[in-house]
Amino acid sequence: MKAFRKFNEAVGKAEFVIALVMTAAIIVLVFLSAVLRTVRLPIVWSVDVAQLLFVWICSLGADVALKHKAHIGVDLLVRKFPTKLQNAVTLGSYFLIIAFLMFIMYYGVGLCFENYLRKYQTLKVSYSLGTAAVPVGCFFMLLTTAEQIVDLRKNWGKPNVV
Length: 162
Fold this sequence. Notes:
The chain is mainly alpha-helical.
């Protein structure tokens, strides 16, 4: 379990750094594109690159938020439940999350295969490079959810509302 936790931590750090670099790249690219467009030297591929980077930022950022339990949640009612019932609701939520992620992964992989011949208009790379962000992000979120389930089971007597 320690190896799994260390792997998940390393993935989380890498996701954060990669998302940060991609965000900075989008900012620089969009700014540079706007400046060059005003002097009539447009960067025609900037929109496609920004779109590609943005979808990866969203997928990686979703896992980073999940690791920090920073996704939005409504726990007004659940907080009034006894601790063991809170934990049971949380565990049920985790299983719903897993089912949803597996559903999205399944169809996301299919979409990658469907889009392999489609190209970004200006980049001439497969659109699958962008659509792959969804199943990859879901896979990492599955790992995070599995770790959170283990943590919940370890700390069953303590409040842990999603």
